[in-house]
Amino acid sequence: MVSNGKAAEHPAASGPRTARRSSRIEGIRAASPDKSISHRAIMLAGMAQGISHIEGLLESADVLATAGAVRALGANVERTGDGQWQVKGAPQWRSPDGDLDLGNSGTGVRLLMGAAARFDLTARFTGDVSLSSRPMERVLAPLRLMGVTTIAADGGRLPVTLNGSTRLNAITYTPPVASAQVKSAILLAGLGAMGETVVIEPEATRAHTETLAPLFGADMTMERDGAGLVARVRGGKALHAADVHVPGDPSSAAFPLAAGLVAGTGPVTVTGVMTNPARFGLYRVLEMMGADISITPAGSRAGEALADITVRPGTLKGVQVEPHIAPSMIDEYPILSVIAAFAEGVTHMTGLAELRAKESDRLAASAALLAANGVKVELGEDSLTVHGMGQGDVPGGGLVKTLHDHRLAMAGLVLGLGAKDPVTVDDVAMIATSYPGFFDDMAALGADIA
Ligand code: S3P
């Protein structure tokens, strides 16, 4: 039994990589485990009474950073096998001895600030250069309304010192941005507030916290309201241990499936992909683009429906991607932009202001990625237009700046698999934050990435 809490994986790839047209891209891979659910499972187990088992945890740098932080807050978090984790929760978290370094992970840091808020502790949160440039005030403002005190660096950035309280106020809050991270931070704090905390979302974002927390005994509910969602949590209920089997990540599955669409020589299948509608926007857009895609139900895990998804190469057409779909595919715009380059006609994506607050300014960076590879794009304040060149006609040959952003690195490599000339990305290290099996999966499908 391995008990040091570290995944015994081969060392993560780093430095530049070049992807080129490959003689074969086809095959079947199991989906990489979902990042959002992995973070939440560790956090909830870490504050529950008893021993929880998590199966198929995503052992990526982001999730391992969360596991390390939850351990520093008092829980016993152990790796017992491949993707198998055992967590003995600490129903009262304590002040950690050192900083809580969440690396590259916005989900890790924002959700943990909410989760830690209801305890009598002081914690200082830090992160890497990308995370340290991202806005934290969106989470700190509602947490302060609930009763925590915070000290942040200029502009509401990390490092953030948070003083929690065992006497939090319940609040009713409508986040000014559509953000599952903001919603989840408030709900996790609300687990310890006096009364009912309500988060109102005019546009629903992923409801993974709302789905998972009740498995651990939380009094948390959600109600759909048109395109929106109202989530409620009543504070004071003790959490108990639970077992969670993590479903496959639709955001990671997008990369091998995109490779199949733009560079496939036969079918590419990814099995066990979560089809939660709040995460499935990309696949709906691919259908609109005329992609040859089949989605076959494949049971469920942790209350989430799964499917095996198969794509085949074929002609794609440019589409209009409306703002209302953005919350359900917020992480997928870099890879959609790449796919759009291989479509015929123009793809116009709007309502993308939030992309500027991701691991990088993903809106500008996606435009730069395509422009560097001979694709005509127009970048707006909150929109991106891609002039598709059709299958086989994307020039490539450029260098992609990944800006510490895992999804840009993977999108750049997929572009290279279908482009006329090889595409180099400057650094692939960040891919390990979300999809540590990326290179293995792509190699198994035949992708030429060296
Ligand atoms: C996530 C929410 C999204 C997403 C991130 C994961 C989550 O961020 O971009 O990768 O697990 O709650 P926002 O909620 O800030 O949009």
UniProtKB/TrEMBL annotation:
Q: Key word Protein biosynthesis present in the record? A: no
Q: What does this protein do?
A: Catalyzes the transfer of the enolpyruvyl moiety of phosphoenolpyruvate (PEP) to the 5-hydroxyl of shikimate-3-phosphate (S3P) to produce enolpyruvyl shikimate-3-phosphate and inorganic phosphate.
EC annotation? 2.5.1.19
Q: Does the keyword NAD apply?
A: no
Enolpyruvate transferase domain boundaries: 21-442
What lineage, starting at the top, does this entry show? Bacteria, Pseudomonadati, Pseudomonadota, Alphaproteobacteria, Maricaulales
Q: What is its main location?
A: cytoplasm
Q: In which pathway does it act?
A: Metabolic intermediate biosynthesis; chorismate biosynthesis; chorismate from D-erythrose 4-phosphate and phosphoenolpyruvate: step 6/7
**UniProt xrefs under InterPro entries:** Enolpyruvate_Tfrase_dom (IPR001986), Enolpyruvate_Tfrase_sf (IPR036968), EPSP_synthase (IPR006264), EPSP_synthase_CS (IPR023193), RNA3'P_cycl/enolpyr_Trfase_a/b (IPR013792)
Q: What is this protein called?
A: 3-phosphoshikimate 1-carboxyvinyltransferase
Q: What's the encoding gene here?
A: aroA
> Where, in this chain's numbering, is phosphoenolpyruvate bound?
K35, G106, R134, Q181, R362, R407
Please state which protein family the record places this protein in: Belongs to the EPSP synthase family.
Leading EC class: transferase
Superkingdom as given in the UniProt entry = Bacteria
The UniProt record gives the binding positions of 3-phosphoshikimate as K35, S36, R40, S179, Q181, D331, K358
Q: Which SUPFAM superfamilies match?
A: EPT/RTPC-like
Subcellular compartments: Cytoplasm
Under the heading Pfam families, the entry gives: EPSP_synthase
Reaction equations catalysed? 3-phosphoshikimate + phosphoenolpyruvate = 5-O-(1-carboxyvinyl)-3-phosphoshikimate + phosphate
